[in-house]
User: What shape does this take?
Amino acid sequence: MFRLLILFVAVLAGCQPATLPQAGQPAQELSLHELLEPGYPLVSAHRGGRRYEGFPENAIETFEYVLSKTPAIIECDVSMTADSGLILMHDNTLDRTTTGNGRVSDYTLAQISQLYLVDDYGSATAFHPPTLPQTLDWAQRTGAVLTLDIKPGVPFQMVIRQIDSLQAHRNAVLIAYSAEAASTIYNLDSTLMISAGIRTTEALQRYLDAGIPPSSLTAFVGVSEPPAELYKALHKLGISCMIGTMGNLDNKAIALGDTLYHELVVRGADFIATDRPIEASAAMRALQEPASPAHQFWQKLSRQFAQ
Assistant: This one.
């Protein structure tokens, strides 16, 4: 009888899940779509963070600095080198953001990786331009969410291949400036999230007509406020909305006060792409609902870098 009891317990144990959620943890990990659903306002750090002295754009060290201060999506730029390497770089040339000069496409990945990044104030730092694989690996290990702005001439399939090889699908959103580009991304890998340029309801319809499901989309509505009808149409489909404040709106906030960011969210924006992610996030914090399923993830992400 005792042996039968042991066998019965063992069979039951084999039917149980391999791991059980710990107290206070969600029953299952949220998908990237769920993390980016409407209703939990966040900032997106434009080029990963700018205007912070000693922290250059498109640098992993800058991403970590921003995340140590606030939860954030990290937007960064992907360029291609002479030997078809993928590196984070916004400009076509090296002059503004590195200690090098000349066109990015004229140098190899190894050559550019040895340069030093320069901050917005012209000071060289100790940081090197990161490659896309290095950045995806960092995001996959830390849980960070990247929005990848793929520069002209960089094939989508090369970027997607890197995401796939590092199993970083939950960490990367690809920017598409047209329904055609979004369709290309979706057909290459339907599991990826796409940040779609959608400034009108007509543009929204073009993405839907291309066969891209709303669950694969988050919308970038431009650098000025869209009509309220666009916010409503996107939210009705469960598509979150990002407004860009880089430039005029950021400058307006500096002049008139950071409550501007709070007001943008109240009027319909879910995410704010900004050159001032730390300041904008502070102004939006009261709108972040602690009961939101995404709250725990974003706060935990930020806390690991604050330690």
